[in-house]
Amino acid sequence: MTPAGREELIALDRAHVWHPYGPMPGRSDPYLVESAAGVRLRLADGRELVDGMSSWWAAVHGYRHPVLDAALADQAGRMSHVMFGGLTHEPAITLARTLVEITPPGLEHVFLCDSGSIGVEVAIKMALQAQRALGRPGRQKLATWRGGYHGDTFHPMSVCDPEGGMHSLWTGVLPRQIFAGPPPAEFDQGYADSLKSLIAAYADDVAAVIIEPVVQGAGGMRFHHPEYLRVLREVTAEHGIFLIFDEIATGFGRTGRLFAAEHAGVSPDILCLGKALTGGYLTLAATLCTPEVAAAISAGEGGGLAHGPTFMGNPLACAVANASLGLLSGGGWADRVRMIEIGLKSGLEPLRGAPGVADVRVLGAIGVVQLDHDVDMPHATAAAVAEGVWLRPFRDLIYTMPPYVTDETDVARITAGIAAAVAAS
Ligand SMILES: *Cc1c(COP(=O)(O)O)cnc(C)c1O
């Protein structure tokens, strides 16, 4: 693309296009991407960047994967979309069956929807409807721990971390939920006890506990001990409270297990999946539940789940999700994630103790450098780009979640990009 062509597009972008979490126009110009292949984004000016973000953690197989491209083209040749009310199709049926097979035991039913936030809305709706149907309509609250992120629509926002989630912006608007302190990295019996007693104290008000298992993503990239999942499973079962695991970020191998719940051997009542579900190709989410949850809702007032988005079960998205799950089913992803984990550890550990660095942590294909101050976003991003790496830091965090197909050399390039971003912050 000519420099004039690029400038014109960027000017139009500034004039008309809203970007995430920003003012209009944006604080700084976005980078113009022309194409992407493998783990590389190709900018319109010809530069190539190794993608350390997997496009917000979704593109686990990289870009233009021949198997995913073929699945999409093949499905487009049959039908791109049909409504899901009264109609069904093989891509959705196959996807539901596969998800039931590979997710933790007990989850038998699948609700397909448009995006992660909507998947969380559906999970919350399932819990509230099931509690009503079970004769406990007073149970309308959700309990969680601080430091979480569950999406940007209103009910999900109400269970995001109250500080990081900008609750102050929404005083009087968001439903008030019940928050425990953030889960510690190590197992702490005192914290476990306080979690149990908080949930027990509010048992008559709480429909469900919702958390991200093992890794809290956009709320602060923090890891916690899997034993807390067992604690939550026990206390929620004891009080007839549903347990919702939001695995939109952790699902499909990111933490080194196919699902983070496997670190604790715990099954939730309701499970949210999204992001990497379609290998980063199309927007799709799935909310799974147990037969108990489904039976309660189906026997309740209204006679069913009160949800049905226009693009529910979109065949293109389901077909590419099936192809992505097919790639994962070989199991080769686990070795690659382990290799990335080793590469991230060796590349990032030397930053521990560097000026401005508060913590370094790595789990599976997730590498995080936490600073003792907020990141200087434009400078940090530009420093990584100068190293040939795409990163999108936030708050005090410079991190990577690379595609699983990233090789050793490119993992080293990413950690060098992180080091450059740290130095520029
Ligand atoms: C990204 C994310 C969501 C929201 O998904 P969207 O597709 O962006 O709506 C919800 N929960 C978790 C844990 C996420 O990481």
Descriptive notes:
It is a single chain. The protein is an alpha/beta fold. The chain is built from 13 helices and 16 strands. The chain has helices at residues 3-16, 54-57, 66-76, 90-102, 116-133, 154-158, 189-201, 227-239, 291-299, 315-329, 332-348, 377-386, 408-423; strands spanning 33-37, 40-43, 48-51, 109-113, 141-145, 178-180, 206-211, 215-216, 222-223, 242-246, 270-273, 285-289, 357-363, 366-371, 389-390, 397-400. The strands form 4 sheets. It has a 7-stranded mixed β-sheet, with helices on both faces. A 4-stranded mixed β-sheet has the order 1-2-3-15. Strands 13-14-16 form a 3-stranded antiparallel β-sheet, covered by helices on one side. A hairpin with a 4-residue loop joins strand 2 (40-43) and strand 3 (48-51). Helix 5 (116-133) crosses helix 9. The longest helix has 18 residues, at 116-133. The protein is globular, with a radius of gyration of 22 Å. The two termini are 31 Å apart. Bound molecules: pyridoxal-5'-phosphate (PLP).
